[in-house]
């Protein structure tokens, strides 16, 4: 029903076509081939939003009441109590300002007592922030894990995570690669997936082509070696 706005006591009238609701329920049961165990019911919900101005403060409250009517009969027989009420109370609120206050509402005596304590509290707070900052850095993911996550997001369509890599055979040739980009260029030609094994502080990426194993190692020692090589080349 459309929203009704009234001032003071009011009454809302509306019509109920029980036969129409019975036909609708029968059509739904015929389409779904299912029936409600307790039969079909028609529920009417009234949402009463009350606003008013008083000498103390404004009233803005919502009262909801529902009544249920079983379908299938020719008369209306409500199952719930038709009369309900909701009580409330208005509390008077007064703010009495203190004209002689210092330091966010403290009195003169309180401000004097707080002065020697404030530097100690400030130092303790700064110490806690430093400890939490260091701990947060220690508990964060390492650069190797961050790089592995970046590669997984960027090349996730080509990478397959595995628990273990097959051991290197005697007749197998291992070719180390210096970057994952070289491996991606390689799989475009070979049409092979990149096998990824995550270990402690290291990640191994491999592509197998017959007796040839192409391998890219992402680890702290590998990163250090790359930096040393770049320094020497410079």
How would you portray this structure in words?
It is a single chain. This protein has helices at about 20-30, 110-115, 115-140, 145-155, 180-190, 220-234; strands at about 40-55, 60-70, 160, 175, 195-200, 200-210, 210-220. Mean pLDDT is about 75; it is low at about 225-234. Strand 5 (about 195-200) and strand 6 (about 200-210) form a beta hairpin. With about 230 residues, the chain is of the alpha/beta class.
Distance between the termini: 80 Å
Number of strands: 7
Helix and strand content put the structural class at alpha/beta
Low-confidence parts, pLDDT < 50 over ≥5 residues? 224-234
- Beta-strand portion reads 15-25%
Q: How many individual helices?
A: 6
List keywords for this structure.
alpha/beta, 6 helices, 234 residues, 35% helix, two-stranded antiparallel sheet
How would the blueprint of this fold be written?
Blueprint: H1 18-32, E1 41-53, E2 58-70, H2 108-114, H3 117-139, H4 143-154, E3 159-161, E4 173-176, H5 180-190, E5 194-199, E6 202-209, E7 212-219, H6 220-233
Parallel strand pairs: 3-5, 4-7
Antiparallel strand pairs: 1-2, 5-6, 6-7
């Amino acid at each position: 029903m459309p929203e009704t706005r009234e001032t003071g006591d009011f009454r809302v009238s509306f019509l109920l076509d029980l036969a129409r609701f019975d036909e609708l329920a029968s059509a739904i049961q015929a389409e779904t081939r299912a029936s409600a165990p307790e039969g079909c019911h028609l529920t009417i919900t009234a949402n009463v939003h009350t606003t008013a101005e008083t000498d103390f403060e404004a009233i803005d409250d919502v009262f909801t009441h529902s009544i249920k009517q079983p379908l299938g009969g020719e008369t209306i027989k409500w199952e719930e109590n038709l009369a309900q009420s909701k009580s409330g109370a208005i509390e008077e609120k007064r703010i009495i300002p203190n004209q002689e206050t210092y330091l966010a509402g403290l009195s003169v005596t309180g401000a004097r007592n707080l002065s020697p304590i404030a530097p100690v509290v400030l130092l303790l707070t700064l110490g806690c922030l430093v400890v939490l900052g260091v701990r947060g850095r220690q508990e964060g993911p390492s650069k190797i894990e961050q790089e592995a996550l970046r590669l997984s997001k960027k090349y996730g369509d080509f990478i397959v995570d595995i628990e273990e890599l097959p051991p290197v055979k005697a007749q197998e040739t291992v070719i180390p690669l210096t970057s994952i980009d070289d491996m991606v260029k390689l799989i475009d030609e070979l049409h092979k997936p990149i096998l990824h094994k995550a270990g402690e502080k290291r990640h191994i990426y491999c592509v197998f082509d017959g007796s040839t194993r192409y391998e890219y190692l992402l680890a702290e020692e590998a990163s250090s070696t790359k930096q040393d090589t770049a320094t020497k080349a410079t």
